[in-house]
Amino acid sequence: MMPEVIDCLRKDLRELQPDFIIVSGDLCSRPDRDAVYEARSILDTLGIPYYPCGGNHDFHGKDSRAWFLDAYRDRLPVQDTVYTFAWKGLRFCVLDPWWRWPDGSLMPVSPDHTDMDNGLEGLAWGIPPEQFSWLESVLRSCPNEPVLAVSHYPAVRIPDRLRTDWLQDGGCLDNGDLLVDLLSIHPNALGIISGHVHLHFIEQVKSVWQIATGALPEYPVEYRLFEVHRDRIEIYAKGLSDPQFANRSLIPGRDLTRGTEIDRHAVIPVRW
What we know:
The chain is an alpha/beta fold. The protein is built from seven helices and 14 strands.
C-alpha cells in the first residue's frame, strides 16, 4: 500500500501544513545505497521540511551512515547523525543509538549484519557514552528551552497493558534507564520521541514522557500530531483522511497496535 499511503499523506499534509516532520527511523528496509536515496526522494515529495533519524534498518552496515549523510546532506543542520535544532523556542536532540555486541561493547554496525526482516530476537542497542555527554551539554547550554530527545528505539519497554501473545517486541534501549535518568534531572527536558516497536504507546517515567509511534504502512496507519501551545504540548494519533488503508491493514484480533486511549493522546505541561 505504500505508494497509495504516501499519495494520501501528501494530500493530507498540504491541508494540515505542519511546520516540519520528524521521521523517527527505519526510513528504508533494503540494506543498499539505492534504497536510501529512494526513501529520500519519497520524503522530498511530501513538500514539508523534515528531520530524519536513523533506525536499525538504516544503520546496520559499515557504509550505512555514509549513505545516510550523503542522501540527507541538504536536510540535516550539520553533517552528523547526532544533531540538534530549535524551533520557536523548542529544542530537539536527535540521537544515534549503536548496536550492543556479544562482548558488551557498543559499535556503530550490527554484530553480524543481520537481515532485519528475520526478527530482532537477541539484538540490542544503547546510547554511546559520548552521546550522553553531548546531550547533557546541550541541556545545560539551553536551560530555558524545553527539550525533546529523538531516538529510533524507545527508552522504556512496551507497557504491560499492550503485551499480548502475538506481540513481536522489537525491544528498547538497553541503557534507556540512563537516558531517562539524565533527562529527569534537567527541568527543561520533556521526553523522548521514538518509533521501532510498530505500535503506539505513551508512558511517563519519572518526569520523562516516552512517545512511541507505530509504523505508517501498518495498522492503524497513523502518525503523531504535536500541537504546541503557550503552556503545553498536545500530542495526538492522527490517521489518514482515507480510512481504507487502516481497514486493509488490520489483522483481525490485532488492533491493539493502535494503543489504548492513554497511548493516543497526551498533554505535556511546558514552562517557557
